[in-house]
Specification:
By secondary structure, this protein is mainly α. Helices cover 51% and strands 0% of the residues.
Length: 92
């Protein structure tokens, strides 16, 4: 009638028995950040001093400084959050 499976109904009834409500569970909060605030601050400061560094170079420098290996996507997300674009500045 409602287009749901029997297993869904069993889970729904079990949830109601445990909690006394059909309200959904609260969100878990997601994954913890791979780079903490201190690491992000270091990265932003390094990019301020070396604006033409590529993402690959940033990853290598970070790892050489004792950081754990980090992917270019993670680096890009941190820089994007801080409004730091990786577009190269042309020589004038």
């Amino acid at each position: 009638m409602f287009g749901v499976s029997v297993s869904f109904l069993k889970k729904l009834l079990a949830h109601e028995r445990q909690t006394g409500s059909l309200a959904p569970k609260p969100a878990s909060g997601g994954r913890a950040r791979y780079l903490d605030a201190e690491a992000q601050a270091w990265l932003v400061a390094y990019v301020g001093q070396h604006p033409d560094a590529t993402l690959a170079e940033l990853g290598q420098v970070w790892q050489a400084q004792g950081g754990r290996p980090v992917g270019q996507t993670c680096l890009w997300q941190v820089l994007n959050e801080h409004k730091l674009r990786r577009k190269k500045k042309p020589a004038r």
